[in-house]
Amino acid sequence: MTYEPKKYESLLGVKGISEVMLKNHLTLYEGYVKNVNAFVELSKTLKIGSVEYNEIRRRFGWEWNGMKLHELYFEALAKDFKELDVQGDLYLNLITAFGSYENWLVDFKILGLTRGIGWAALVRDKQSGVLMNIWLGEHDMGHLANEEILLIMDVWEHAYMTDYGIKRAEYIENFLKIIDWSVVEKRF
Is the pTM of this model over 0.90? Predict the structure, then answer.
């Protein structure tokens, strides 16, 4: 199977993300898709169990998750802010998990300010249904088993430095203003 990069050009003009930064970010995402395809094709040519085959298989998760995490990120953004339904199940579950929506929001923002490269994510445990905010360091590290990603915020430098320099907190505030909560609610 060959994977095609999804098109997110409709996000051009979204508040808080310049055209230059968005285009750079989309180019980076397309690189992950290209590498996933290259890894799939290359693994077909290598002897199963060889050092080369094993190394390709070991590194595959990095490229795959780079592709998928960016898709989850871009798909939850919108030019027009779509508010979270305060009568909906997601909102009520955030209150159950965090005590209030405001508590969740503070926790998510603080998590996004974690030093280092990574992602801040709102996830749901598929078995218990419990909502948690988690930090994913690298694409292939930090994922909790059996989690379902509902909302993910890219806090690698490429996601904000072009527009915000080292002001990650400002980027986070603007990110929270362009979430399409209808997408997040649908994932829930």
Answer: yes
